[in-house]
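Worked Example 4.2. Consider the chain below.
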Amino acid sequence: TPAYPERSHLVRFALIPALLAATLLTLSACGDEGKGGEVDVTLKEWSVEPSVDTLPDGPITFNTNNEGPDEDHELVIIKTDFAPTDLPTNDDGSVDEDASGIDVKGTVREIEPGDDNSGVYTLDPGKYVLISNLVHEKDGQKTADYAQGMYAAFTVTKSE
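Applying the procedure from the previous section yields the following structure tokens:
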């Protein structure tokens, strides 16, 4: 038994406020990632249509719907200073995702016409371009979604 058994209870009770303060500090630090938000993105031949073009930094949910009517599409989120029409491309008309100045932050997987999919990506402030970067082949002809106009500008601002 401790020499002063009544003090062991005091030590335990003194630790509770310290543990609560440490927990609150940890939780408040987690809240510094920004507000984020949600954007609905419609994909169709041949456009990418976000419901908003600006959101604050933080976790952003991209709810993506492919209205087709005929082709699969995807959503690629690229941080870049290039204008949406000036992204570096490959010979087939698709965007060169490995090119200098292109920083792919996420991809909402290939979606069939009539389907939808979502993805959450934590984005920093800056300029972005939302694209579908699939290449379709039909009757020996290749068609790149990006070359057909499947892109949209998107901006992420600093949370206040």
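The longest strand covers residues 58-68. Residues 19-31 have pLDDT under 50 and may be disordered. Compare this with Example 4.1 before moving on.
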